[in-house]
Design brief:
The chain has helices at about 5-15, 35-45; strands spanning about 1-5, 15-20, 55-60, 60, 75-80. By secondary structure, the chain is an alpha+beta fold. A hairpin with a 2-residue loop joins strand 3 (about 55-60) and strand 4 (about 60). It is globular and about 35 Å long.
Length: about 80
């Protein structure tokens, strides 16, 4: 599963994308919903949890926490933006 990162999320992770294994060779639970993905990423990158309004898009559409995700989905983390 590949996740595209933008803005401050890219800075936190240190890369423009993040790959999450789709099989559990390590025994860790594989995220199946957006909510599980948020938890997974928060554990791996605690700084992400400090963002006030982190949106997640699945296949170019904003997703709510209950949306299921699959290994072939295009997933993006969209941080809060500021500007004027």
């Amino acid at each position: 599963m590949t996740i595209l990162l933008f803005g401050v999320t890219k800075d936190i992770v240190g890369s423009p994308s993040l790959s999450i294994p789709t099989t559990s060779a390590t025994g860790k639970k594989i995220p199946k919903t957006v909510e599980e993905l948020r938890s997974f990423l928060g554990n791996a990158y605690p700084e992400l949890e400090k963002l006030t309004s982190l949106a997640i898009a699945v296949n170019n559409n904003y997703a709510d926490n209950s949306q299921e995700i699959n290994s072939y989905d295009e997933i993006a983390l969209i941080p809060p933006v500021s500007g004027g």
